[in-house]
């Protein structure tokens, strides 16, 4: 593969052109029925009582809602998966992305290199097929993009599955930076465009690292927008990663939606209070009588009618269990647990670990996530990883050291920091410079354990030939 | 003001640091009661019937919901405005932004320059105070950022009120571009960082325009995130614009939420199905019994319970009328109407114009918005502005001309284009290069009309002294 091809591959995520290109709304639905049953207007009638909401709160198409197989209460996880992927349309670029991932993984599997899939940014839940409104999950992609850089520095090959236009490794230093991108540049004397001397040194360092990752074909970026894009591509890439055996690492830092609108309940057009026919009729009569509630700027009629929008969402089927059991059974799996309430963080992380039986949950709080995280792994108490006290504030001289000192990273205080005790702004050390070496050490143990269990296998163990080959390959490359 | 100060001002929008910094969730609420009444879980009970939804669909705190003054049906628009701004917390940076806008406007008012407020990007509706989830409106900010550039080229001073991290004038050519930002740069022989020759010429053109706008203090960028940020800052800046008289132009291209969660109904923490106390109790007993529905990755328990999330939103009070009548009574006001259904576009635009009595609605369809828009103004039929047929496709040589030919921009076909007839990708000509000169011409007429009506005033007209001074100033500077 030429450098040019590699560069294109490493960066094609930025090149999808339209911000809409991966929206599942551009996909034909496999379900022909388009219904607005999910979106119901309700009037706050003065006589409606809490114990008996007005019947108008839900449309009378609830029967269809209830018969949706996405919601059947008696399904096994495998059935839920099968139903989800058969009922929801695959994103347009799925095959292209899966093929790119496969080529990338095979390249590094052959070299015995570890490969990490980093997911990053928030997934969206479109509320209309031609999407004007959507539910989003807060994430600029900082955790994922920063982690990806440290994985690259630790010799991993990185598949970066990220929300389109969220932060990317390396370019993150400039895309959402303190200055506008153009403020870093000026016109040279000969009509050239050059980086200002003030920023030159850091920009050169970042550019060299980026070019090195491109040259070695160690960074593949794949974009997603919706929860549906994410789930389809995640499944495909996890499947692609099976040949890596224990050398594969899944580092799931994306902020993934818990709820979605099943396709059979999604409306085609921007949600309106009246449909086009009604509007035509009303407008012909007297526009002032029209009850236009969903105006682009401004919604209520001249006299407010107190109309509300009610959005009714189904839970996203649970896929982490499938990931652990089936999609990438030998890889190490790390998930994140973001909470805002410090009192429930560790319990929620522990609970997720108990349920899915994967390898590590990294817990973090919205307000302190750049200063500390907690590692929750099987059979261990929560282990806090913190930016050391003396590195929490950027030094006055602006001498920014990006890599922290891992040995200093663990404090003995076993409770979350109080956000009030933290300085304003960003810590001097990026906490991902402490997280990634710790994850890498656990991954090394994971690989060793796998090798040992392989060695201890009796020679006549009745492994299927392909699985035995995989294990052998894993030992050879680990 | 020094160039340095101007540069900082023109770009401080990029410098707010945390992507969270403007979220209203960081504001103390004026309403002390925090209730989860809006977020109700419902079980799809097999026996629940459409005509009588389960009582659990709504919590029993609906009484509080119904007493919310945001929802009182008998309010005048002025009361709705007063209530909104007294019940919702002002964003942290409101005073700073208003002061910056005032200084900027006074500077240009003194020079007799026209000032346009361009709003751009989508507003968010947070679902929690410590926001993990929010509802968003689809917009990369292309319309607003591109329009702002053409206003600058047409000698306007531009206040760019935009969604944080959405596209900005000039940097838009690189921030969401076909290439990663770092792909435009390479290492020079002397350790410098330079733009690749391939991109140099265009980058130099963009950089010169950007630096010129900065040097002349003609671009002020102000960020927003939530619908609440937007409404507060819009009101403040519109007030600041009154001294401009008819020289002020409001160009409202932002995709503004129609619905929001009133503060008294907003929960503090990430939405959970059980509260922390319940979780503690359950976890101590047996984690497997805990019904954790809102897991960060994956929501449903081992056996799906078909739990749903129901989000109940109030309409955003109508403010366009206030803008027309009170905030900026002499300025010209342009709003946008985005639809997905071509059959209702013009009627909806006409309807908005009839209701608010402002000057221009620019209608556009999601699928064709880069190729055509329709101008709907009082007493005129819809006027289509289109990228000319021979400029709809970028030429093979990649010779990208950004400025179109306005005279060619109007076609006689009076119905929307069929998206199927349009080429893939982007048109060769940016449609904003046709929109802005047309808006500018209307603004010139608006100013002239205002001057004429002032001249025709009898000399003893009983104008309050300050309004007379404003009008006189408007004539002098127009």
Automatic annotation (TrEMBL), chains A, B:
Region described as Disordered: spans on this chain: 13-89, 447-466
Low complexity bias: start-end ranges: 21-71
Biased composition (Basic and acidic residues): 72-85
PANTHER family to which the protein is assigned, alphabetical: CORNICHON-RELATED
Name listed for the protein in its UniProt record: CoaB-like protein
